[in-house]
Amino acid sequence: MTGIVIIGSGLGGYSLARELRRLDPAVAITMVTADGGELYSKPMLSAAFAQGKDVQALAQKTARQMEGELGLTVVTRQRVTAIDRAAKRKQGAQTITRNAPLVTRALRDAAAGTGCAFWDAQAAMGGSGSIRRWAKEGKAQRDLVHLTGPGYARLAGLLFERLAKADEEWRAAR
Predict the structure, then answer these.
(1) Which domain holds residue 127?
(2) What CA–CA distance (Å, rounded) separates 45 from 43?
(3) Which of 37, 103, 121, 152 has CB 3.0 to 4.6 Å from 76, enough for a Cys bridge?
(4) For residue 11, which of 90, 96, 116 has the smallest C-alpha distance?
(5) Are 88 and 144 in contact (CB under 8 A)?
(6) Which residues, 6+ apart, have CB-to-CB distance to 105 below 8 Å?
(7) Helix intervals (H) in the chain
């Protein structure tokens, strides 16, 4: 299986990496982060700064410790400023299609583990392979990765519809 790149560390990035590793012990995972890659709770930042503490005092683990714990590579102090879409056209859609079930499951599990909601955009679009239909309808770009303006608008509409339905279900259950 082709490796997975996670852009950004922090609790979200490391939670995703942890779930990916749990689901597939062999997949190559690389994390790129603009900071030092330390694991810390961002909600604690304001309290720590008010007490005169720095990020190092909040760090629960270093990037190197996280590499060892999760079996991944953490590239620190590097910003992702662009993605080579031409290279993606050659192999990206195939790689994304191959990794999508693993990443979707890991995101779903990470959300459940932290008490957050999860919405599967691919399922909302029509499931695996639906990006090709969206491209034919002018809602996705030819790279079969990114949507067009009308596609993003439709996806936002689908999310809004699901949120409205969930709110209705929640209110009915009260």
Answers:
(1) 119-174
(2) 6
(3) 37
(4) 116
(5) no
(6) 19, 23
(7) 10-23, 45-50, 55-58, 63-70, 85-113, 121-125, 130-136, 149-173
Looking at 116, 135, 154, which one is the last position of a domain? 116
- Tell me, yes or no, whether 72 and 126 share the same domain: no
pLDDT of residue 70: 94
How many domains are there within the chain? 2
Strand pairing partners for 5? 30
The region, left, alpha or beta by phi > 0 then psi within -120 to 50, assigned to residue 77 is left
For residue 44, what are its two tokens? Answer: 């604690």
Assess whether 85 and 44 both reside in one domain.
yes
Model confidence at 152: pLDDT above 90: yes
Per-residue pLDDT tens digits for 94-128: 555 567 788 888 888 888 887 888 899 999 999 98
| pLDDT recorded at residue 84 | 66
- CATH code of residue 54: 3.50.50.60
Six-digit token string for 95:
């790689």
Residue 126 and residue 133 in contact, taking contact as beta carbons nearer than 8 Å:
yes
Among 95, 116, 137, residue at a domain's last position = 116
* pTM assigned to the model: 0.60
